[in-house]
Amino acid sequence: MTKKDRLFFLDAARGFGMLLVILGHIWETDGILPVLIYSFHIPLFFIISGVLLKYTQTAGRPAGHIILSRLRGLIIPYVFFEFVFAGIQKILNYSDLSGQSIWGWLLLNPLNVPLWFLPTLFFSELLIIFLLKAEKSGRLMAAASILLYLIPFFIKNSGSPLSAAALRCCSSVGFTALGYAGCGLILGNDPHPALLVILSVLSGVLALINGKTGIYKLTFGNPFLFTVCAAAGSFVVLSALKRVRIRILEWIGENTLVFLGLHIIALRVVQLIPGFNTDTFIGGIAAMLLICALLTPAALFINRFLPFLTGKSV
Questions:
Q1: Long-range contacts made by residues 225-232, C-beta under 8 angstroms, separation at least 24?
Q2: Which residues have a Cβ under 8 Å from the Cβ of 16 and sit 6 or more positions away?
Q3: What value, to the nearest 5°, has the Cα angle with vertex 57 and ends 129 and 145?
Q4: Cβ contacts of residue 113 below 8 Å, gap of 6+?
């Protein structure tokens, strides 16, 4: 079995998480489904990144190589999709960029809001990697990650883009470190289905008690409930997807950057359809499927002609 075959479920989990991101942006309410989705879908991505850092032993590579690979894989796609979005917004007169600096707009407060995830992951991964380089046993990384993770629970955002970005990085470092530490458990033996059912019910109930949360808006509710729901929900998804291969989820996971960068544009197109109510369960699922259908040709085109814009080798 190849490395790709062993890790197929990580791509599937990214794909599943991406569908949840799309649904979360379709259902912008505090209803039951949005609350459940937001309780774990973004931490899931950071945990997956931590698992891959551990599995691939990335910290053992030369520092220059690591930085260049992260610039290519995260920052170039970030800049590309942000300029695509900004250009479309300008053409359609949806936004005015005249009063915004390049620092405040592009680097800290993207117009294409979902793209906040990419620079956050960039800095989080580099911090984890260089902490591991400084102290190979991982104790320094673990201690620093725990301390950083706790900061947003006690220090509130001052309102500036820089403050918000820094606090998001603190949260993401915690979940990336959790994935790194839990790599063996996640890649190891499959837990009993009964345990997954119990964890699903428990995390769902706790999420509804805690209310809608989110790293982007730095809304956590009860820190303990937020952490438990994020970790348990992510573990359930990763464990469940190890049991069966779902190729379409794997493909979406492999093209997460395209879906992340363009789904808001596709959503705006779908919302222009007369009489299409995306607030209902059926309407939201239908909208998600339409968005995926619209983005599939874009993903195929970029993979074929512009792969370097999504971090892939030419």
A1: 226/39, 228/203, 229/39, 229/40, 229/203, 230/39, 230/40, 230/43, 230/44, 230/175, 231/40, 231/43, 231/47, 231/178, 232/40, 232/199, 232/200, 232/202, 232/203
A2: 237, 241, 249, 253
A3: 35
A4: 216, 264
Report the distance separating Cα 192 and Cα 198, nearest Å: 10
DSSP characters over 128-164: HHHHHHHSTTSHHHHHHHHHHHHHHHHS---SSHHHH
Contact partners, residue 135, CB within 8 Å, separation at least 6: 141
Torsion angle (degrees, nearest 10) of CA 230, 236, 238, 244:
-160
Which of 215, 212, 114 has its CA nearest to residue 157?
A: 215
Rounded Cα–Cα distance for residues 103 and 124 (Å) = 19
Backbone angles phi, psi at 219, to 5 degrees: -110, 115
Which of 36 and 99 is assigned the larger pLDDT?
36
Which tokens sit at 206?
Answer: 């706790």
Cα separation, 141 vs 124, in Å, equals 12
pLDDT digits (tens, 9 = 90+) for 216-257: 999 999 999 999 999 999 999 999 999 899 999 999 999 999
pTM listed for this prediction: 0.95
Q: Is 245 in a helix, a strand, or coil? A: coil
State pLDDT tens for residues 117-136.
Answer: 999 999 999 999 999 999 98
Rounded Cα–Cα distance for residues 12 and 254 (Å): 8
Rounded distance between C-alpha atoms, residue 159 and residue 86, angstroms: 23
Looking at residue 15, its amino acid is: G
Spatial distance between the Cα atoms of 74 and 116, rounded to a whole number of angstroms: 11
Give residues with Cβ within 8 angstroms of 89, minimum separation 6: 95, 111
Contact of 258 with 310, CB cutoff 8 Å: yes
Beta partners for 214? Answer: 219
